[in-house]
From TrEMBL:
Ribonucleoprotein among keywords: no
Superkingdom as given in the UniProt entry: Bacteria
Protein name (database record): KDO2-lipid IV(A) lauroyltransferase
Keyword Cell membrane carried by entry: yes
Keyword terms of this UniProt record: Acyltransferase, Cell inner membrane, Cell membrane, Membrane, Transferase
Organism of provenance: Rhizobium rosettiformans
Amino acid sequence: MRMLVTRIVLALRKFYQWSVAQAAFGFLTALKIFPADSAINFADRLMRWVGPKTKRHRLMQVNLRNAFPEKSEAEREEIALASWGHMGRLAAEYVFLDRLFDFDPEKPGEGRVEVSGVEQFLDLRDNPRPFIVFTGHTANFELLPVAGAAFGLYVTVLFRPPNNPYIAEKVFDFRRKRMGKLVPSHAGSSFALARQLEQGGGVGVLVDQKFKKGLETQFFGNPVRTNPLLAKLARQFECEVYPARCIRLPGNRFRLEIEPQFILPRNDKGQIDVNATAQMLNNKVEAWVREYPEQWLWYHDRWDIKRSI
């Protein structure tokens, strides 16, 4: 009897995940009917209406209160609504991703996308060596590996698949066609990244995700656990590390930035200091978020507080 109940529960869960995925795919497919700007703007307005009605909105409010205690409740709510709109835009932009990246080195500033640090892209492409590019969940971070591929610079990207297996499969296939090599985040992912660096290639990682077994660090003055993977790989291979980010501009435009090499701290033995590096990564992402707070995904449980609210 117990086994039968378990099978029914699993079947219902599977059906629910499938239904959610089909609804999401149907919505995104419907957006293709409209021009990109109209579809993206509609998704923004829709999520500003839907987001505050979800349980995640409360988590978002707590995150913003902890990160910006100096701001008023009205200011934080304005950031929250804009962040929901940003998430709507991010979803809609998946549909038009191929058309969004239209950067032309011969005509910079004329398309939707402008790129800062082109010379760095070209140097990494033309002078192959192991390197790591890191970013955070700011604006449309998916455009960064697309930009790299457009410049002929292919990196192995570490990503966390969505919890819904049907959505995860679709997203993986979509990303693989546009971004090159992908490594789903799991127990053996570090070995795949290490092999890429060992072969003289580059890897890309998001460094602002929750990691329960990570190092004790600070983010916006509050304790968080940070994944030590980037720091350990950099120490093992003595490879260069570069910060990169996407900034959403008015008019559904974007600026992609790859910054100068990130000089990592070292300990008394001359080795890269893993703990100090983890904190430096948080500091860099925090600086980005403070500059454009509405463009970060505040609904993430970065501080692992969901269970306490």
